[in-house]
Amino acid sequence: MTNLAVVGGGVIGLSTAWRAARTGREVTLYDPEPVRGGASWLAGGMLAPVTEAWPGEEDVLRLGEESLKRWPEFARDLAEEGLDPGLAGHGTLVVAFDSADAGHLDILAGHLRSLGRAAELLTGREARRLEPGIGSVRSGLHVPGDLAVDNRKLLNALYAACEKRDVRFVRERVERIPDAGAVVLAAGAWTGRLHPQLAGAVRPLKGEILRLKPRRGCLPPPAHTVRAVVEGRPIYLVPRGDQELVLGATQYEAGFDQAVTARGVRELIEGAERVFPAITEYELTEIAAGLRAGSRDALPYLGVLDDGVFAATGHHRNGLLMAPVTADAVVAWLEGDKPPEGTEAASPARLHQKEHV
Question: What is the phi/psi pair of residue 337, to 5°?
Answer without folding.
Answer: -100, 170
